[in-house]
Amino acid sequence: MQQQLRKHLEQIVSLTDEEFALVLAQFTSRHQRKHQFLIREGERVREIYFVVTGLLKLVHTDAAGRAHVVSFALEDWWEGDFAAYLAQTPATLSLQCLEDTAVWCLSLEGYEYLCRHLPQMARFFLVKFARGGVAAQQRILSLLSLPARERYELLLRQYPTLPQRVSKTLLAAYLGVSRETLSRLAEPGPK
Question: Which of 111, 121, 160, 164 has most Cβ atoms within 10 angstroms of its Cβ?
Fold first, then answer.
């Protein structure tokens, strides 16, 4: 697990062995079973997560009780309720394991320590948060402007293995369509 984290970090920044030891000291590892929660809506968010193995879903439940899948987090992804984490406020999102999952956990204190003591880690997080913001904007724009079929095809291009790992009900919730509509979209078209 340590090597996977180091390889991930070094895609953006360089770290000596001593620096990586400082980084690693701020993380804890956790193994969660399928269906367990890392974050529950309404609870204080203490950590963000780097996915080593497994699959997570980030969900918002609206006032009517409808669950909206905000994102899926696969291997080598960071996930959490970032707004609640940074502000140390109750979560507005829930983060649940869809498979048995191994994660590295980073507290806000650990994050702040790394940013203060290792400038390259401040840069790493800046790049990651910026990329996450861009991805969130692109997702919002696709929901606002693309027809359901194009959103489905985009999902297949971006995450080709996801339909084999996630139920059609969850995929439909992510795409903002009914399960029936997703079934029609998934049918092979005329050749």
Answer: 121
Q: What 3 state SS string does 37-75 have?
A: EEECCCCECCEEEEEEECCEEEEEECCCCCEEEEEEECC
Beta carbons of 92 and 83 less than 8 angstroms apart? yes
Q: What's the Cα-to-Cα distance from 60 to each of 4, 81, 95, 115, 132, rounded to whole Å?
A: 29, 10, 9, 29, 18
Among candidate residues 174, 145, 173, the one with its CA nearest the CA of residue 159: 174
Helices (H), 146-178: 148-158, 162-165, 168-175
For residue 74, give the nearest of 159, 150, 1, 142 by alpha carbon.
Answer: 159
pLDDT in tens, 142-179: 989 999 999 999 999 999 999 999 999 999 999 989 89
